[in-house]
Amino acid sequence: MHKLVEFMPEEFRLLYRQFFLRIVDLEALSAHADVIGYLGQFAGVFIMLSLIHALAAYIYVSGGIQLSFAWHMEQYLIKTMMLVTGLFAVLTWDATFPDKRDIYVLSPLPVSSHTILSAKLAASGFVIILLIATLNIGSGLAWPLVLGLPLGGWSGVLRCMAAYWCTMVAASLFLFCSVLTVQGLIAISLPRRASLRVSAVLQLGAFVLFIVVFFLQPVVSTRSEFASPANYHLIDRSPTYWFFGLFNWLIGTLPEELNWMAERAIISLGLAVLGATSSLAWCYFRTMRKILEEPDIVSVRRVAQKGARLGNSLTFAVTTFSIRCLVRSRQHRVVLAFYAGIGFAIALFCVKATTAGGSFSLVTHSIDSGFLMATAVMMSFAVVGFRGCFALPISLTANWILRTTQIQPSESYIRATRRCLLLLAVGPVWIGSAAFSVQLRPYGPAALHLLVLALLGCILVDINLRNFYKVPFTCSYLPGKSNVQLGFWVFILLFVPLTIAAARYELRALSHPGRYVWMVSVLIVIDAALLISNRLRAKEAVLYYEENPAEVITTLHLISGPLRNGSSE
Fold first, then answer.
1. Do residue 393 and residue 513 come from a single domain?
2. Is 412 helix (H, G, I), strand (E, B) or coil?
3. Cα(74)–Cα(423) distance, rounded to whole angstroms?
4. Which of 244, 260, 293 is the last residue of a domain?
């Protein structure tokens, strides 16, 4: 893609580079941020996942597993590719459509609308190509090899490989174009302010939908299951099965009675591309003036704020400021929805996996390890999600107001931030868990678990706010500090096993008073130690508003002998 761009006109190349870098919101980043390196961390995670998927192909060959395992993996790979593309489409919700910044900056210049549209599509398309390549670099070679050899030797391998990559590109293009079509229809049919409100709601809904479908959608892996009338409505409405049918139709292994799935995939892909093209063209050539003339927000009549304040005036101010930032900033809502969606999907998966027979139901009659894991996962993702939002600024150009109005010591701001995180993250999850616990019998173990959950929330808050010496939403963000690859593998290799082990231990402790008292005592001691340590550190802390990378002095070791040891001889 980059080589093709070099042959384009100069204005296209300049716009392409700018739009590519704007995939990540530059206004929220520190001046020292490495955008390319930050995106490279995600690429490393995808490459490692692809190698793990390739290892599954080796297990399929060496273990002599039946064809149902291959069909299972094919659906899983397509579903994973569509999930990643869907998350990218939601995270870059408005990146492809024109906004006021584009109109104000580019309208006075001799740049045509189709050049702007082409540059934005090229930037988004290049990122999608990277996603497809990194997520399938291993599986895209291993699985066509093991599936194609029995179909006709190396010619079958080449055919299977072409079908695999065509299916992945088609599935990604379908989902991305479907999201663009929905956005375009909203922008065309509604006024500017109404479209922004509806678009924000749909953005969060799509985020949660993609993640929940990935975790909860069942796998249909046998011919009899595909032919079963009970699964017809599921297969008829899920694009994953359509593109699974397309892949098997291309390699010639799809049963004749299932050819309608491949036809459905081709027709839906054509409609999605047509809808995205039409809506983008309409927005760029017919509605740009409407975007310029209509305001995004309007003044409203202020209503006197009444109600009890939680905490002192500083805590109330920080909490109110945080709530308003989350309500008004689309970027922060997306980040929060990312964590909430993953946590909710994993929580549902935990409940489903521990239910007898694998059937999912929101109504249970006895407390089990699935409920314990689900509440712990939701609490963890809620705290980490809000902590991640706190680190992103709402408006760096307005931070001078906060810097010049600091009339209390830094310790008071840090304490107010802790109370705000407890209120916004721990409180809702605990209340939701308590409401769900009403359906459990007996009430005693459920009430005891709520105490453990509250202590867990306090511990997570104190851990996440360690060395967090800033007011929420007021400091620039340095992506290099958040190691995506390390966080991903810590979650897989450490958080998941510990959550399972802790849930099993707590389930036994709920029926053993001595063990339960010991467990609660340990949690109280841990939380108290963290709280005291953070408060001692906060006494000497200074609030900061700009993330800077650590200065590292590297020596070249060019001096040797007596001079290196400090001798003058």
1. yes
2. helix
3. 43
4. 293
Mean pLDDT confidence for 465-491: 74
Q: Does residue 259 sit in the same domain as residue 330?
A: no
The token duo for 306 is 């009444």
Tokens of 218: 């069942």
On whether residue 32 sits in a domain, the answer given is: yes
CB-based contact 458:534 (threshold 8 Å): no
* Chain segment 252-305, per-residue pLDDT in tens: 888 888 899 999 999 999 999 999 999 888 877 766 656 655 555 544 444 444
Both 220 and 331 in a single domain? Answer: no
DSSP assignment letter at 308: -
Q: Would you say 323 and 424 are in contact if contact means Cβ atoms under 8 Å apart?
A: yes
CA 86 to chain centre: 10
Cα torsion through 177, 18, 46, 157, rounded to 10:
60
Spatial CA neighbour of 88 closest among 123, 127, 47, 50:
127
Residue with tokens 């997520």: 135
Residues 135 and 169: their CA atoms lie apart, in Å, by 12
Cβ contacts of 492 within 8 Å, gap of 6 or more: none
Beta carbons within 10 angstroms of residue 460's beta carbon: 23
For residue 399, how far is the Cα from the chain centroid? Answer: 27
Domain encompassing residue 171: 2-293
Residue with tokens 């609308």: 113
Q: Are residues 393 and 289 in the same domain?
A: no
Q: How many whole angstroms from its chain centre is CA 528?
A: 32
The radius of gyration of the chain's CA atoms, rounded to the nearest angstrom, is: 27
Phi and psi based region of residue 544 (left: phi greater than 0; alpha: psi -120 to 50; beta: remaining) = beta
